[in-house]
Amino acid sequence: MIQFESVSKSFGDVKAVDAVSLTVEPGTVCALVGTSGSGKSTLLRMVNRLEDPDSGCIRLDGVDIAGMKPVDLRRRIGYVIQSIGLFPHWTVERNIATVPHLLRWDSGQVRARVAELLELVGLEPDTHAGRYPDELSGGQQQRVGVARALAADPELLLMDEPFGAVDPPTRRSLQDSLVAIQKRTGTTVLIVTHDVEEAIRLGGTLAVMEHGRLVQTGTPAQVLARPANEQVARFFGGPLLGLHLLQALSVRERADFSAPPQAGAAPITSDATLEEALARMIAEGVSHLRVLDTDAGRQGTIALTDLVG
Ligand SMILES: Nc1ncnc2c1ncn2[C@@H]1O[C@H](COP(=O)(O)OP(=O)(O)OP(=O)(O)O)[C@@H](O)[C@H]1O
């Protein structure tokens, strides 16, 4: 668990972070969002002591990090940034094993961990472990960056615009991988992004920043349904906010399972988003879809009017 208690940080006259209090529960994903310059990166960088607060306190699992040695603290935290920072003269295996080497793991243990992590991030170990970073695509390098951050099984993963430099399809695939990895490992993730769709896809919780202040927290559906102010509404799409809300809600939340399902084309699964349901209805020229609830093994219907809520 990570707790910010009234944390502030200024650079000269600029109050980059202004009295922020926020708790990120263990095993959850929190997406820090907000316009450029709102203080997201500064808040993140204070967690691994790349910056220190002027006032306030940050606790990791209840312990004030101000009393910890930065090097000890950083070994408990994985850090992924946009400019990946892989060492160019080291193989993928050596890059991923940076922290395990520092922790003096034996070579068999390191090799096994590297293979496991490459599998986890979707890279075939035999073909990728021996390559150098410039022999990989940008998306593959980013996957190696995530594997390296996870190498020593950190309790917390800090990510600062980790997928900002890759094309949209690769970005989506990296986001899916991150969600799957997080579910499997249970690592707490604090991620900075100014991509609204990314925040919605990843964020169990959104923490919205504005001029150094934390102005709203909540699930994507809560924040999008009731933005705290005009700026938050504008950030989440202004007139298109309703479309983003369709991305934040699943078919399960709006489908009707009480009546027999409408017959028709292939069903949509209940974990699909309302946006996907709308896209299917438009593409197929229908106003209802049959719904398959994969968890409960039941069937239902979602209608165009259900999307309005
Ligand atoms: N090392 C620094 N020296 C001086 N000013 C800084 C420094 N780091 C950040 N700032 C200032 O603090 C404010 C917050 O910056 P920060 O990078 O935290 O914002 P951000 O929300 O992450 O922005 P972006 O989305 O553009 O990365 C900005 O006004 C920035 O110019």
UniProtKB/TrEMBL annotation:
Entry keyword set: ATP-binding, Nucleotide-binding, Transport
The keyword Nucleotide-binding is annotated on this UniProt entry: yes
GO biological process, one term: quaternary ammonium group transport
GO MF assignments: ATP binding; ATP hydrolysis activity
Key word Iron present: no
Family affiliation: Belongs to the ABC transporter superfamily.
Domain ABC transporter residue range list: 2-236
SUPFAM superfamilies: CBS-domain pair, P-loop containing nucleoside triphosphate hydrolases
Protein name: ABC transporter ATP-binding protein
Pfam families: ABC_tran (PF00005)
PROSITE patterns associated with the record: ABC_TRANSPORTER_1, ABC_TRANSPORTER_2
Record-linked SMART domains: AAA (SM00382)
Top-level lineage group: Bacteria
